[in-house]
Design a protein that fits this description.
The protein is an all-alpha fold. The chain has helices at residues 16-37, 45-73, 87-90, 96-129, 143-162, 166-185, 191-202, 216-235, 239-257, 265-287, 292-297, 307-315; strands at residues 205-207, 261-263. Strands 1-2 form a two-stranded antiparallel sheet. Helix 4 (96-129) packs parallel to helix 6 (166-185), helix 7 runs parallel beside helix 9 (239-257) and helix 7 crosses helix 10. The longest helix has 34 residues, at 96-129. The radius of gyration is 25 Å and the shape is globular. The relative contact order is 0.07. The mean pLDDT is 82.
């Protein structure tokens, strides 16, 4: 309706953008399958096919809802207002029609986006995991790759902002950074564990009025839980993964607060555990900061010695 005459695409027929969206729903799954075929790492086919099917279904749901919403713009619908606040909607009779438009909005902007983008980013992440080679065999990005990178970044910026999926994008980006760091340290086995914890944490939010504090038993267990995670992080040498997960959790808490949501009891326990764990790691690193032997064994920007190394160096010979 911006570039082409409206007379070419009547309101009761698909628009030019709808036809492009239909092509996207066909072409994108094929390209993703081709992308997975080129992955050096063999990925589980069932998971890939399930993601593709879900993506197509979600994108198709979004196609219908988005088409109707864009047609409503020509009738005075205002995207910056909620469904019930729109001038052309709020006076509809019978009032139950407004519920139908809210259902349309739910399919378009919520369910459609989730079913579309979650498998999309999951496939990209699965492909990304296989994109590692030994350091000596590493090849830089060709000139054509750098030229395309700007257009690709612009596309994903639009995808994230228009699709309102910053939380999903942030989670994927944090996971990708964690994979890069852990591939260098060969600590990949802990990623699913922390990813599951983070996905669980995302669901631990309730409206502010319904917020419940942490019970006494939770506070008693929190110390033991934090001590366990301190040992996991230090002995497992996965501080980078833990730090990225904790930062992502803090980001989710801030974003959810703007929506009027707060952590429930389970979320408070998990967030409290990670907070105390971070404090314990900081105390541990500060205590051993000037140890020359451990400094030599654990070089690098993030210095986090293992407890058993400390034991064999400072404690074992005293018994």
């Amino acid at each position: 309706m911006i570039v082409l005459p409206l007379e070419w695409f009547p309101l009761n027929k698909p628009s030019a953008g709808d036809y492009f969206h239909m092509a996207y729903n066909v072409i994108t799954p094929i390209l993703l399958l081709k992308l997975i075929e080129r992955s050096p790492k063999v990925l589980p086919r069932s998971a890939v096919y399930l993601c593709i099917v879900t993506l197509v279904m979600g994108a198709s749901i979004h196609l219908v809802g988005d088409s109707i919403n864009h047609r409503l713009l020509l009738s005075g619908y205002q995207l910056h207002l909620s469904v019930r606040e729109n001038p052309i909607i709020k006076d509809l009779k019978p009032a139950s029609l407004i519920d139908s438009f809210e259902l349309l909005y739910y399919y378009d902007e919520q369910l459609g986006h989730l079913m579309w983008y979650i498998p999309y980013f999951l496939i990209l992440f699965l492909y990304f995991i296989g994109c590692f080679t030994p350091t000596k065999e590493q090849n830089g990005l060709p000139v054509s790759g750098w030229l395309l990178l700007g257009f690709s970044a612009l596309y994903y910026w639009y995808l994230v902002t228009e699709g309102q999926i910053f939380e999903l994008f942030l989670l994927t980006f944090v996971a990708m950074v964690a994979v890069v760091i852990l591939q260098q340290h060969k600590g990949l086995r802990y990623i699913p564990y922390f990813l599951i914890l983070f996905l669980y944490f995302i669901g631990c939010f309730t409206p502010t009025k319904e917020q419940n504090g942490l019970p006494v038993s939770g506070w008693l267990l929190l110390g033991f839980s934090a001590l366990y995670y301190w040992y996991l992080v230090t002995e497992g040498q996965i501080f980078e993964l833990f730090l990225l997960t904790f930062v992502a959790m803090v980001a989710v808490v801030i974003l959810q607060q703007h929506k009027g949501l707060r952590l429930d009891g389970n979320g408070l326990f998990l967030f409290g555990t990670f907070s105390v764990t971070m404090a314990l790691v900081v105390v541990w690193v500060t205590y051993l900061w000037n140890d020359p032997v451990l400094r030599k064994k654990y070089p690098g920007l993030l210095y986090v010695p293992e407890p058993w190394s400390y034991y064999t160096l400072h404690i074992k010979d005293t018994h």
